[in-house]
Amino acid sequence: MGSEGRAWNGAGVAAGSGGVEAKAITAAVSAAEVPRLAVSVDISLPLPEMSPDIIFLCKELVIGWCKFDSSRFSIETVSGGITNLLLKVSVKEDNGDESSVTVRLYGPNTDLVIDRKRELQAIPYLSAAGFGARLLGIFENGVVQSFIYARTLSPADMRDPKIAAEIAKELRKFHQVDMPGSKKPQLWNDIFKFLKKAAALKFEDNEQQKTYENISFREIQDEVQELKDLLDILNAPVVYAHNDLLSGNLMLNDLEGKLYFIDFEYGSYSYRGYDIANHFNEYAGFDCDYNLYPDKDAQYHFFRNYLRPDRPSEAQAQDMEVLYVETNTFRLASHIYWALWALIQAKVSPIDFDYLGYFFLRYGEYKKQRESCFSLAQSFLSELRNG
Predict the structure, then answer these.
(1) Which of 149, 165, 334, 380 is deepest in the core (most CB within 10 A)?
(2) Which long-range contacts (CB under 8 A, 24 or more apart) does 353-361 make?
(3) Neighbours of 113 (CB within 10 A)
(4) How far is residue 36's CA from residue 58's CA, in Å, rounded to a whole number?
């Protein structure tokens, strides 16, 4: 549920031979440090009033742009998501050609739900490994990146079998990136941090406070612990995960057939099944219709291309079953994560969005799917124990 393009009306059983390879892709990062500028842009300003600051930081951070007069620049909004404002900044060069970059401005208070230090450490490595836009510069409340000439996918695009296969293959590559530092999965740390923050809120609006007081955080804590205990037994592979692979974070250049993953705000080491489950939950689209969650046949199509991108038809049945159980149990963790995220946003975000309603939507879906997901994992583990 994290970054761009969201609206709402109203990711022991180890992987087998088809699992994530032990050999990871190691990204080589340029020794040149990414330029940084101690400038902050007021994201609350209208675009015309913000433009001089945007032009200034681009002239300072983008190599070769300092020589251009401000009159040569044009700025347009690409998207205004829940946690970012994304701008396309273009300049007309001496030869008449136009060059463009992307300026991403962080929304206010997003540091409460996003680890910006973790994100900025990851971007150069992911860029060197071929993912997302190239990081060109960093300023106080945002980044400048290369512009990707591609269209943003829709939720319906993600459900298209051909595109789903490409997403699965690309996700396999993403999960093989070797990020420096600790490889400890962050999912449960993040969820418990969110839970602690969410349980200590106080709303100024009386109606919001009254609604908030009906939430049982003891119940949520117990649910999270029970779910964690079950998932720990599954011993899912740990990978570097995107953790927010919704349609707005997927782009496709139709002419080149090139698929892009973008926006790595929530990226961290996490569990393979969580990242896939979180992506499947996003099939629900902007209307949050969770009846669109992929059925078993659609999931197995995705798994074949993930497990054996070179020869999908040779994916092993046992490996797909493991991934199916893993994914559909982590499905619950995704609902809990974004439900708690929404509660925090309900308090701190200035954006006009029914975050409290979104909490109840996601937590309600968790409770709706809980019994079947727990039963799936418990039956699978029972079969393993009984040999």
Answers:
(1) 334
(2) 353/8, 353/82, 354/8, 354/10, 356/208, 356/211, 356/212, 357/8, 357/10, 358/1, 358/8, 358/288, 359/215, 361/8, 361/288
(3) 22
(4) 11
Rounded to an integer, what distance in angstroms lies between the CA atom of residue 172 and that of residue 295?
21
**Within a 13 Å sphere around the CA of 245, how many CA atoms are in the beta-carbon half?**
30
Query: Cα(258)–Cα(19) distance, rounded to whole angstroms?
Result: 25
Q: pLDDT averaged over consecutive 10-residue blocks of the chain (387 residues)?
A: 42 36 40 77 92 96 95 88 83 94 88 83 87 91 93 96 98 96 95 97 96 97 98 97 96 95 94 98 95 98 98 97 98 98 93 93 98 98 89
- What one-character-per-residue DSSP string does 105-159 give? EEPTTGGGT--HHHHHHHHHHHHHTT-SPPEEEEETTEEEEEPP-SEEPPHHHHH
